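Hey,
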Amino acid sequence: MDITDEQWRENAFRIPIDLGAVPRSEDDDGLRQAMLIVWAVLAKTSATIKHLYSLIPESAILEFAATLDMQAPDCGLSFDGTESYQEIVKRLGGCLRALEREYIERDLGSRPTNPRDWLVEHAGHCAYLIPMGRIAWRDARDPAQDMRNFDQRGLLRLRFVPAVVDGARVQILKAERMARKSSAFGAVLFPDAIFECDETPTRFFVKAVGIPNGEAIISEACRAAHAEHCLTTVFPELMIDPQSRGLIQTQLAEKPWLAEGEVPDAPGIVVAGSWHEVEHGQRYNIATIFDGHGVQIARHKKRMAYKDAQGRVEDIQHGTELAVVVLEEALFGFGICLDFCNRCYHTPYGWLDVDFTIVPSCGNEVTMDGHIRTAKDLHNERNTRSFVVQQAYPPLQQAAGFVLNPDGNPSSWVANQLLTGVPWSIFRG
């Protein structure tokens, strides 16, 4: 429910009472619920109040955190009702930092590893507490100079992801894989592909796609994803029908290029494009996500249907879930084309607080420009990097499609400079 900044201030003064009411008898002495209370009041406030956090250096947050008493029911947090907005934000930020540190220091390695057990609920708030900090894209910062915004600094070694984002249920899923240093991203495109659609004056869906040398391109991409130690490999939207998806899964599982006795070094995750499929009597645009051995991790259903220039609408039902895949190296979120490039609404992907957003796509230069703009928003707000692999449609003479590299360098992102003509490309994040 929306509230005014004045109401927020009055509510903030009651946070010590809310903390004191948290049961301390179990569940890490109520630390998870206490963190959720303080995180939610800062994460869900107005942009004006959130901005105040970016005016407070980390050194001031740490200084206040050091004054608190984690053994006290209210954690030693107090207000007299006269504090300014900025002082309230500083105290709440310090309290959250102190709670986070206490929680980390109590970890003896016995906490649950199943994402279902990461769910925290309290006083109407519901979010997953993911035991993983963000990727450090740069060297550690001097606390006196660290002025990052709340969404990048509120929590440093943990993350809260709401259980519901933009009306979609969030699924937290783990891919079992040993961490390794890898920043390679593989992109697969299909030159000279031809779509066959079922169309009416108002609706359409893709019923077949012709891909010259499709099997060879897919097989080589799967092999190359292993050879390059790819963290993520992505096939484009509406190019991977069930037969091609089966080929991808078989290649990943059997790895026919390996010599006898050779130990495979599998890629992290492989997004097998997407396809228009019927599930329980309803058609969806579904992207299948595999691990590096062909085990299905998730199926992301496109949430926004495309409308073409003639007014025909993609004949699909919208998906009602958002997947977040946890690897030891990073967190990944997923979208399909318009889920990500739609500029009519502010992107919900920031709430997922992932390190990478992965997007199979199909479209033209305008489509890619939308992806670039959303990727810039996420980079500015969350320092999230985006990897978009887009098949060109209508087909282009000079290229098979576009690839947005997750290089964290938004000044270099221009749609017509992202054209890619070859079936396989490797990028370094």
